Amino acid sequence: MTRQRILVVDDEEHILELIKFNLDKNGFEVVTCDNGEEALNLLENDLFDLVILDLMLPGIDGIEVCKYVRKIEGLEKLPIIMLTARSEETDRVLGLELGADDYMVKPFSVRELVARIRAVLRRSEDKKENTYKIFKVNDLTIDTEKHEVKVKGKMLELTLKEFDLLKILAINRGKVLTRNYLLDEVWGYDFFGETRTVDVHIRHLRKKIEGANGNPIDYISTIRGRGYKMK
Question: What is the distance, to the nearest Å, from the Cα of residue 100 to the centroid of all Cα atoms in its chain?
């Protein structure tokens, strides 16, 4: 099973080390950075399940990062937990009004932080299950309940892996997904095949979409040296 990825943004090195050590120990994959500019760059070019975001950052602060993230297509609902030394109610309210899912004040209990992370991720997954049933990408429709894919109303005959691959691209529309990420999500964490497996399945998908639409590039783009994304 793929480990959930968490981005931790804080300008205090010991806080980053403390959180990373404990989240690693609890089965999460952790990426850290110490400023808002780098955080935005990571969020725009990589894939995360949750962000732990310090309010007081050099340059672009946590409030601005949160505002910006909520305007990025595909990241509007990315779970965010605000982390700050401030304890005033106005700061907590501001963070939550800007779209943060939870708020913790330093000093904090690591066990409580882990518990809150799991709770926020659980709520996020519940929302996805209730929302992500039918996806529309241009003339392509993916019905996850009926396990059907249509292009301009024409049914596509897909294998299980092709369907799962197309679905994960649609769920993360606009984001670049690496071949390794797609391998883990579609084939499983314990799969020992080559990343070329992904390329082969993408080629088959494009061929089938092209048969129905005439232009598969309208849907799945190759990002050279990175992976794939659905437009």
Answer: 16
For domain 134-230, the CATH architecture is Orthogonal Bundle (1.10)
| Fold classification of 5-130 (topology level) | Rossmann fold (3.40.50)
Whether the bond into 79 is cis, omega within 30 of 0? no
* Other residues' Cβ atoms within 10 Å of the Cβ of residue 85: 13
Give residue-wise pLDDT tens across range 108-161.
Answer: 999 999 999 998 998 877 666 555 578 888 888 898 878 899 988 889 998 888
CA–CA dist 59, 61 (Å, integer): 6
Out of 41-45, 123-127, 200-204, which region has the weakest mean confidence (pLDDT)?
A: 123-127
What span, in angstroms and rounded, lies between the C-alpha atoms of 42 and 23? 19
Q: Judge contact between 70 and 98, C-beta under 8 A.
A: yes
Task: Let me know: does 34 contact 15? Beta carbons within 8 Å.
Answer: no
The number of C-alpha atoms within 13 Å of 41 and in the hemisphere containing its C-beta is: 8
Q: Which two tokens stand for residue 14?
A: 């010991």
